[in-house]
Amino acid sequence: MTAPATSAPPEPSAASAPGYRARRTLPLRVEAMRQLKRRRTLVIAAILTLLPFVLVAAFAIGGDPSSRGNGRVTLMDTATASGGNFAATVLFVSAGFLLVVPVALFCGDTVASEASWSSLRYLLAAPVPRARLLLSKLTVGLLFSAAAMVLLPLVALAVGAAAYGWGPLQLPTGGALSAGDAVPRLAVVVGYLFVSQLVTAALAFWLSTVTDAPLGAVGGAVGLTIVGNVLDQVTALDTWRNVLPAHWQYSWADALQPHMEWSGMIQGSAVSVSYALVLFALAFRGFAKKDVVS
């Protein structure tokens, strides 16, 4: 009699392999070092570092902006009053577009870049769970975006203090804030700018999960942000503009008042976070079902 044929025991899955822990795959420090060593990260850091020096040179060539006396005092008119004023002016001129670019780049050039390099399927075969991969890349993207927003005002504050002195922050509406009070106010401004840019970050990240072209994800997020800014200028939309994140992007100016107002920043934060949560959810849900072939 012949022994009955027996099938070979199934190979253990990755999830049951000895020592495998899904939470230990693609550690944040590894992803952060990968992103830090990329050339576009160094280029963004260089641009943000050089911008305050360029503006100081522009003011030196063009003269003191407050001497023009056009009848209305703006933040730009007080740019050379102190280091705090200079830092606030740098944030004002860069918030509408310049700070949008690094956010879109760090959050949009994540998953799509892996797909374009044909390394995404190998990461998932490691195996890195899809949700873990997205969470690691999103966390690092947001951290780098926050670092970019902190780097610019820090350099501007140092450069402005060296060029114009460490004095009170002169308010366009009248009055002044001491240097000790100005720094926390500027920190509030930076924090609100980061929250308001969450919409751009979420747009870029979502697009990064649906396309294999990093430029498409980054450009799409920047383009849609610009469209939102244009729509906010259409006064015929009236109260409909209140649901546009762009409508609240300069609410941080309320922090540079003798008595800080929170209502505008709270409304703007609520709008931005609501849009961001929906877009992040779409990214995770869509990528979980995506057929990854690259």
What does this molecule look like?
The chain has 294 residues and is mostly helical. The longest helix is centred in the middle third of the chain and has 35 residues. About 3% of the residues have low confidence. The termini are far apart. Helices cover 60% and strands 1% of the residues.
List descriptors.
60% helix; two-stranded antiparallel ribbon; mainly alpha
Strand order of the largest sheet: 1-2
The Rg value, from CA coordinates, equals 24 Å
Spans with pLDDT under 50 lasting ≥5 residues? 5-14
Q: Strand portion, in percent?
A: under 5%
**Distance between the terminal alpha carbons, to the nearest Å?**
52 Å
Number of separate helices: 11
Q: How many individual β-strands?
A: 2
Large-scale geometry: globular
TL;DR?
The chain is mostly helical and 294 residues long.
Give the SSE layout.
Blueprint: H1 28-36, H2 39-62, H3 83-95, H4 100-108, H5 111-116, H6 120-124, H7 130-164, E1 169-170, E2 176-177, H8 179-196, H9 198-210, H10 214-232, H11 263-288
Antiparallel strand pairs: 1-2
Helix pairs in contact: 1-7, 2-7, 3-7, 3-8, 4-7, 4-9, 4-10, 7-8, 9-10, 9-11
